[in-house]
């Protein structure tokens, strides 16, 4: 889409000064003040978002007690529960065939995701009572209307607040990298909350007992973790695509969020019934059945993510090696 201009500017011969008539640039002290105020407002909005997120997160953490925050047993459980998600995020990172993303921006995105996850915790809790009267149907509706969209939005917000505006975010695939890191940050804080709810404070003085009490939930969270990375890597990829296609930015971002939120909600909806069906048909215990479902579901969508990253890699290689290879677009994964 070409940039449009006012009819006066279009018809002018270029010699006429159209400042404050049909064009504008910073000239006067009032112009300078306006620019400064705009900068202050935009930065203040980001600061306010971070402040609110920080306060909410501190309140959530305080509800578990200070002891849990610094307990080695809980730290070990959280660390173990995030290993699969970390491995997947690392794979997305090394799949970036362009310049390596700076550690400072990766760390900032991770920390911002830990902060913004607090919004999801609050919004999910606030919305739950509105759906609970409808039983199982209400639960499914909440996954598609609230949980999926909210959680994927707050993860993408973590990318948008900082990495997206950095000049080193200079390729579409960078969005997938930062999206994956945001997913990892979300996994860490979500797993901490789940584990903190399981481990009793009285067990903290008995380190081994605390590990024994929490290893089950840590294992279950380890299965769920990679999904967050996959979903937000998809959303992040489309955020990257939007950055370099500004005339279609809004629809592209929405497309990424719709994909991520729908797959996320679909997982939440199917994980319980599918695990029960697999267990009934195969005779496997519930946990192995859960593993089979998670491996199949996350493996399928993980494959689609890998295929998208490889298509970008192939296109990058073809255009930078001077081969002139034709790059044929394909129907998007979720539109076949």
Brief description of this entry?
With 336 residues, the protein is an all-alpha fold.
Highlighted features:
336 residues; single chain; 11 helices; 76% helix; mainly alpha; globular
Q: What can you tell me about this protein's structure?
A:
There is one protein chain. This protein is mainly α and 336 residues long. It has one domain. 76% of the residues lie in helices and 0% in strands. Helix 7 crosses helix 10. It is globular. The two termini are 27 Å apart.
In helices, the fraction of residues equals over 70%
Total domain units: 1
Specify the structural class: mainly alpha
Distance between the termini: 27 Å
Number of helices: 11
What is the mean predicted local confidence, pLDDT?
87
Number of strands: 0
Strand content: under 5%
The shape is: globular
Oligomerization status of the protein chains: single chain
Radius of gyration, taken over Cα atoms and rounded to an integer in Å: 23 Å
How would a crystallographer describe the biggest sheet? none
Strand/helix succession: HHHHHHHHHHH
Low-confidence stretches: 201-214
């Amino acid at each position: 889409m070409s940039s449009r201009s006012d009819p006066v500017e279009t018809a002018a011969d270029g010699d006429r000064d159209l400042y404050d008539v049909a064009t504008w640039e910073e000239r006067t002290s009032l112009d300078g003040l306006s620019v400064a105020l705009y900068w202050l407002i935009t930065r203040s909005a980001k600061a306010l978002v971070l402040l609110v997120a920080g306060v909410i997160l501190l309140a959530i953490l305080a509800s578990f007690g200070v002891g849990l925050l610094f307990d080695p047993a809980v730290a070990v459980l959280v660390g173990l529960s995030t290993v699969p998600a970390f491995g997947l995020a690392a794979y997305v990172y090394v799949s970036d065939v362009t310049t390596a993303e700076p550690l400072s921006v990766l760390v900032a995105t991770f920390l911002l995701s830990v902060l913004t996850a607090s919004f999801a915790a609050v919004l999910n809790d606030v919305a739950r009572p509105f759906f609970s009267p409808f039983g199982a149907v209400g639960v499914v509706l909440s996954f598609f209307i609230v949980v999926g969209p909210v959680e994927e939005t707050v993860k993408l917000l973590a990318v948008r607040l900082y990495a997206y505006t950095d000049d080193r975010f200079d390729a579409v695939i960078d969005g997938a990298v930062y999206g994956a890191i945001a997913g990892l940050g979300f996994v860490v804080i979500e797993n901490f909350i789940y584990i903190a709810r399981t481990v009793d404070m009285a067990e903290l003085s008995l380190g081994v007992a605390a590990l024994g009490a929490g290893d089950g939930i840590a294992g279950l969270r380890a299965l769920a973790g990679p999904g967050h990375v996959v979903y937000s890597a998809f959303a992040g990829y489309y955020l990257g695509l939007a950055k370099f296609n500004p005339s279609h930015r809004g629809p592209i971002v929405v497309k990424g969020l719709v994909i991520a939120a729908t797959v996320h909600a679909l997982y939440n909806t199917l994980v319980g019934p599918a695990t029960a069906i697999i267990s009934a048909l195969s005779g496997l215990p519930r946990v192995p059945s859960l593993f089979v479902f998670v491996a199949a579901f996350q493996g399928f969508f993980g494959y689609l993510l890998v295929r998208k990253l490889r298509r970008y890699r192939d296109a990058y290689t073809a255009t930078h090696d001077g081969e002139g290879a034709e790059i044929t677009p394909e129907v998007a994964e979720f539109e076949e």
